[in-house]
Amino acid sequence: MKLLTPEEGEKAVRLARKAIETYLSKKEVIKDRLEGVFSEKRGVFTTLTKHGELRGCIGFPYPIKRLDEAIIDSAISAATQDPRFPPVRLEEMDEIEVEVTVLTPPEKLSVPPEERAKAIEVGRHGLMVVYGPYSGLLLPQVAVEYGMDEEEFLTHTCLKAGLPPDCWLMEGVEVYTFEGQIFKEVEPRGKVVEVDMRSCSI
Question: What CATH number does domain 6-104 carry, 3.30.1490.20, 3.30.1070.10, 3.30.1330.20, 3.30.700.20?
């Protein structure tokens, strides 16, 4: 998968913020379309943080939409549809940092359940657990930010799916890994930087 340049990463974050602020102020979904990598179908998540605390995070694990369209949709949803939080108010955007994670397609782990922990790398991989109608996803940065090891990361992904914490050891439960390229504001509306989670991993 072709990586985004720093300039493209900044465009991605600026697009996400514009989408949110336009929607919150006018209830309109922007129609901006960008060229190059933004015309490719990519999975993407938009994460919002306020004073260091999560304020919303929603996205698309699979590459089902153009990247620019996916960024716009995930950004608006992160601000207004995350069931864990009340909708973001426009005035809050002065205090919120916007982060965009562009994903590689999820790949199913093809090792026995007891070897799954050895097959993932904290700081590199995000995880998705699927069992019947249940599914849960955690981005690569989650394990690093919360100091999880591989087994803890698997456990928390199971819990995110609404499944028992040790479900990753069960036959029939599917575990997928993916990677993400992360761009974020260092402060609200501030400089956009790329985050290398592998340099931060435990």
Answer: 3.30.700.20
